[in-house]
Amino acid sequence: MAEDKREVVVTDIKIPFWSMVVLMVKWAIAAIPAVIILMLIGLLVSVVLSMVAGAGWHQHYWGMSRGWS
Predict the structure, then answer these.
(1) In contact, 59 and 65? CB cutoff 8 Å
(2) Low-confidence ranges of the chain (pLDDT < 50)
(3) What are the pLDDT digits (tens) for 4-13?
(4) Geometric angle at alpha carbon 52, from 57 and 43, rounded to 5°
């Protein structure tokens, strides 16, 4: 099986200019939902980290850690 391995070298790809423009526009449009999803994930992580890190500081700052009401 390993002897059947063949290498291929691509030297040139000819594609019409407007086909490339259409492809790039489709990529850009497809990237918009991906960026929105990544931003929502980042927001969620940020909120969780803020709650974890901020809760301890808030309790310490207002004296709640000492049992004061």
Answers:
(1) yes
(2) none
(3) 888 999 898 8
(4) 120
- In whole angstroms, how far apart are CA 61 and each of 1, 54, 56? 69, 10, 9
Specify the DSSP element, H or E, that contains 48: helix 17-61
Amino acid at residue number 59:
Q
pLDDT computed for residue 4 by the predictor: 82
Torsion of CA 53, 55, 61, 64, to 10 degrees: -140
First to last CA, the chain: 76
Place of tokens 């980290």: 49
Q: DSSP letter at 66? A: G
